[in-house]
Each structure stands twice: as C-alpha cells, then as structure tokens.
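Morning. Coffee machine broken again, so started the prediction first thing and wrote up yesterday's gels while waiting. Chain of 291 residues, entered below exactly as on the submission form.
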Amino acid sequence: MEWFQAAVLGVLQGLTEFLPISSSAHLRIYPQLFGWPDPGAAFTAVTQIGTETAVILYFIKDIARIISAWVRSRAGTAGMRNGSDGPGTLPRQLPYDPADVRLGWYVIIGTIPIVVAGITFKNVIEHDFRSLWIVGTTLVVFGVILGVADRLGRRERDVRGIGLRDACLVGAAQALALIPGVSRSGASISMGLLLGLDRATAARFAFLLAIPAVLGAGIYEWPSAIAEGSVFGIGPTLLATAIAFVVGYAVIAWLFRWLERRSFAPFVAYRIVLGALTLILLGTGTLSPFA
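Came back before lunch.
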C-alpha cells in the first residue's frame, strides 16, 4: 500500500505545486480523507525536488542565461577593479543583458526571507503549523487575497520591470508559504500582482524564486525522510518524486497557456471551497487537526 499511496501523493504534489492552491495543504487533507497516515513535512520537501526539477527543465534557457550574465558581470567587475579598463578607454558593449544580472540578484535577495524563517521556525513549521485548522483557514484567507490581487492588480509590468522592492516583498510573501495552506506560488503571485506585475510575469518570477529555496529544503530534509521509513521508505519516496516531476512539468506548460487568456478566479473559488469544507469536517469531527 505504501507504494500506491506514494504514487497517488506524487501525482497530487505534481498537480498542486505550481497552481496557487497549496500542495502542502493537499498532502495534509487528502491522506486523512483516505484514511492514510500523514506523509510528513520531510516527505513533502523531498517530493518537491521533483517538481522543482521540472521548473529547472522548463526554464532551463532562462536560468542558464541569468546565471551566465550574473557570473560575467562579477568577472567584469573584478576586471575593472584590477585595472583592465583604464581611464579614457571607450565603453565596451556588455557581453550580457544587465536585466538578467539584476534578475539573478533579485532571486538571491528574494530567497533570504524564506531561508531565515525556515531555520528560525523549523520546529513550529513541522509540527504546530500542520494543524488542519490552520490549513483550512489559510486556504480561505489567502484564496481571498489572491482573488483581490488578481482583480485589483494593474498588471502593467513585465519581467524587465521587476525591481529590488519587488524582490524583497515577493520574497517575504514566499516565506509565508512555510505555513501549509498558504501556497508558495499563490503567495508570491498575489504579491507580484499587487505590485503591478502582469499574471505571466508574477508566475514566472514566483517559480524562479522558489527554485533555490525548495531544492535547498529538499536536500536538507533528505535525512529526515529516510528516518521516516515507517511511513514511506526510500523507494516509495523516490517514486513519488519522479511522478511529481512528470506531472509538474505538464502543469507548468498548461498554466502559462491558461494565463495568456484567463484569470486566477477558478483557483480562488477552489481554495475557498476546499478550505471551508475542511473547517466544516473538522467541526463535525470527521477530520482531526493532526493525523
């Protein structure tokens, strides 16, 4: 059964990681509805490596360009300090796009809040925050926030318009996703929309920003996932991670096509319905706050 359960949870992780509906909430709610054990925060973090690998593959050209530009800019700065460009020399055409360099810095800066919060509140995140009361509430509250942001956001800036203020605020919003039910992509996208980014840009920046944070968390939690062998062993966890990768890649491609012509309204409605249903089932005793 653990292989079957892991496969189902891998599909669930891949379907929900990139949509603004919270994969962590689904991995808390649905196992209990099925009568399965809570897979645990460590299992969730490791399977997210699969979905983040899908992000890397989907944005591989953008990532390679950004990293190359950032490295070249550092090398160029060092060269100027060493006197390679003397006074009176003609300005050289840069071998990279400065916008890519800035985006690289913004990803680094935007990752800091979630790293600090994750280390500081690790025990609370892995235990107290996993209460279904919190999950149901955050699904509803942040669903409303996403709806307001999608409706009121000016959506007038693309990726070249992202600035330092945007990186700091979107990074802070991403840190809230350490609370199950908030949704990493949902919180980041909501903040991006409120700051005036268009839907596709808000989603793209949210996905790029998540890569170092999620991969780092997955690698950090890997020993804990192995220790949780009584729930899912190494084999089922690897299966779930592989499935999450395949499904996640398909979802990313679908989402960007969706955002070209539609809004986040269906995801807002789904979040509110799922959150309200969770709270009702908790109130009637059908679900328990902790598995």
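The chain has twelve helices and no strands. Going to sketch it on the whiteboard this afternoon.
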